[in-house]
Design brief:
86 residues; alpha+beta; three-stranded antiparallel β-sheet; two-stranded antiparallel ribbon; 2 helices
Amino acid sequence: MSGMEFFTSPDVQAMKLPFAEAVRVGDVFYLSGQMGIDFKTGKLVSGGMEAEARQIMENIGAVLKKHGLAVDRSRHGDGDHESRPR
């Protein structure tokens, strides 16, 4: 197994956020820490939860695209499956 590789864009570095926007371990690419921030302005988008969720999906798409990946070729996971009701 190969080691971990951390990816942080200049946008995230400029905001001094305490996380990498993506981590690759072998052939798996993990995303984390996405928020409804418009990285052009550095501010949380206005319009409430719906606007923030839309921005989060745009941010996820942008991170994936930067690394030659796409949303339609990804899967969701959150590591908390055991505590969920079945």
